[in-house]
Amino acid sequence: MQLMWADEAGQLYDAPDWQVVGRSAFWYYPWQAYGRWIPLPEGSTLFHLPGRRPIGIDPQGRIRPYPKGWAVAAFVAPAHTQLALSAYGKNPGAPTLPLYAYTAVGWKDGRFWVPAVRIDPLPRQDASQFHPPAIARGVQTLRKRFPHNRLVQHLMDNCVERYCCPAARNFALGRWEAPLPTSPACNAACIGCISLQEPHESPIPSAQERLSFLPTPEEIAEIAIYHLEHAPLPIVSFGQGCEGEPLLAWRIIEKAVQLIRQKTAKGILNLNTNGAWPAVIERLARAGIDSFRISLNSAQPEWYERYYRPRNYSFAMVKESMQRLVRLGKWVSINYFTLPGFTDQPAEYAALQQLIQDTGLHMIQWRNFNIDPDWYIERMGFDREAFEGPLGVRFLLDDLKRRFPHLTYGYFNPTGPFIRRHLGKTVLSLPLQSPTTPQTSL
Ligand code: SF4
Fold it and tell me: How far apart are CA 82 and CA 207, in angstroms?
């Protein structure tokens, strides 16, 4: 598998006598160490990395920097989990990389290959599924049908047309998971937040702008009901990349859920969240939300809190949220930011097993961590001496399944039939008896 490099103009070249290597945190390994590589999936993007010299195996078998050009990395298409990072040496003063995942990429038999696995078989965000004319027709239909709905305006103008968001495009196409962003504010300050990077501390821009208004329960409900009633295997999801934390708008969400379930019992209501407030989470579960996806950079409280910089909540509260939800019979996924060399640290893996054991969570969505690994090391204050040799992400995928046979893997929030199959019961989100009103709201 040949090494790739790029010139300053971004022209890509292979290095015929050099082999590609992969990176896991502070270590570089020959490409074979990562097992089977796959052809670069359609819909992936290739980057050349300014100020970064590619590292590979020279004709004498030594791992060292390639004598010229910039390193190359792949931003692998959705539904694929990376097993190794692009390997490079960073020159002093090299710019921080924006919020993408930087997976290793090699050249063989006339094509690009990456160390990744297809973790979710569903073609929900495959490039082949998105046809611009059909999307344009869908946008027009929704604009005509909901002329006064600010959420439709935000989703069509901003998410579809400006950011090409796959979830918003699926909404326009009337299928799969429709996004319901709700909250402009957040109760955390993640180092790699994709919707808010503070200029006074961050050298990079946020990947997208945050919602600037609070939608009404009626605005949310009318588009959710429309999607649930018309789309096959429908899901509607609170908690999107273009907003803060939906729990801060729980009263609006609770009201919207009630309005939705008064009209339809179809589909899945899902909440993507940081899981900060167990009482609020339980309130929304009792109101009728079926599945919850809680985002984590780590299952270790210290790493979690160093990255999320939570305001008035702790990792222990996030864990309690998961436990309450499983007790209530709800579907619980973690959105696990996967970064080779960090995720597969022995201590991290032990913590992850403990979390699964203690909560009974049902699914791990192995999401590639969209962050510059060197910037992450710097901002988290990681010390190489404190790190052990990584276990390998592929080992984690296999070993965890062996230890927790009930556990499921994916990249997307599951549909109703999938949840029913795994929870083994009907997932009709009938309102449960509601406890006292929690004292936290937007
Ligand atoms: S929880 Fe989400 S919105 Fe809040 S800071 Fe973190 S990434 Fe950003």
Answer: 20
